[in-house]
Amino acid sequence: RLVLAERTVAFDDPVVELLFRDVVDAIHDDGRWSALWKDETLPCTPTDLDQLRQEHFTGYWERYDVRLTLLGRDLRPRCTTAGEALDWTAFAELTGNGMPERDRPVLRTERQGGGDLLFLGAVLPRNAEVGPIVVELRSRLMPEG
Length: 145
Description:
single chain, alpha+beta, Beta-Lactamase, 5-stranded antiparallel beta sheet
C-alpha cells in the first residue's frame, strides 16, 4: 500500500502546478535573466541556466531533478542543464500543439518507460517573441522496500 500511495502522490502532485505558476512569475520578474532570455546574440551557457535553477527551483522542488533548456526563436536549443537537450518537437507532441499561450504557464505530466514520472513545462517571456524555457521535472521519490 505504501508503494502505491507514494506513486499516486508523485503522479498527482497539485503542489507542483501551483508552485510552477509562482516560479513562472518570479522568472518573469527576474531582470538579470530577462536580458539573456530576450537577446539571442548573448551567449547562453549551462551555468547560466543552472544559476536560474538554483535561484528559482528550491525547497519543494528538491523532490525533483529539475532540468532547464532555453530554446531560441527557431525553437532550437540555445543551452541546457540536461546532458541532452530536449527537442521542442517532443514538447509540442506532448502538449498537442505548438507554442503555448503567453502568460499562461504550461505544465503537463507524462509517465515514461519504467513508470518514471515526468513533468514538462514551458515558460515564455511576456511581450517578447523569443523561445521558451522548457522545464523538465523528474521525480526523485523512490518506493520504499
